[in-house]
Amino acid sequence: MENSANVRFYVTAHGYIENDGAWKTNIYSIPVIGGGDGGAFTTGHDMDRFWGALMECRLLSREYTEMLLAPRIQHNEYIHYGYGIWIVIMQQRIFKYFVMGSDPGVEMHSSMYPKTGMRAHILANVEHSAGTISRRLDEVILSSENEEHTGQSQL
What does the alpha-carbon distance between residue 89 and residue 96 come to, in Å, rounded to a whole number? Predict the structure, then answer.
């Protein structure tokens, strides 16, 4: 990951927070530099490289990769948690793996869909947006997979 780091926030794009119908920057809402509890900055390209390296067992051995990606805790009907990775299980199979992060005014959702190998990275400099886009993308992908399975494509 060449362009990911805990950098001083003023060398990055500003994040924006809605406040009483107006938008303000997040410069007084987050620490100047990230730490162990968060505040890292990344790029879509770096997240794509991360998923490729993880799934091809270039970061960890196959044994440890499988341990990392195994569901450990059930959060709700569909969402589980592994070791640092969220896991969505639908129709008795792993639909996607994802990681996410946010601070006031910024969000990131990065997903990997094991059935197709597709990856999606949503980075936003406004609140309450990346998750919404990610959920809509999941709906489209799941619908497409279901159409494929039943042979009833709308195309």
Answer: 7
Distance, C-alpha 138 to centroid of its chain: 12
Query: HSE of 107 in the Cβ direction (CA atoms, 13 Å)?
Result: 14
Among the listed residues 107, 155, 154, 116, the one whose alpha carbon sits nearest the alpha carbon of residue 135: 107
The two tokens of residue 135 are 């959920």
Report the C-alpha gap between 102 and 82 in whole angstroms. 19
Per-residue pLDDT of the chain (155 residues; tens, 9 = 90+): 666 655 555 556 677 778 888 887 776 666 666 666 666 777 889 999 999 999 999 999 999 999 999 999 999 999 999 999 999 999 899 999 999 988 788 889 999 999 999 999 999 888 888 989 999 999 999 888 877 766 554 44
- Residue showing tokens 């990131």: 108
Helix, strand, coil share of the chain (percent; to 5): 30, 35, 40
Q: In the structure, how many helices (H) and strands (E) does the chain have?
A: 3, 8
Written as one letter, the residue type at 43 is T
In whole angstroms, what is the distance from residue 48 CA to residue 1 CA? Answer: 9
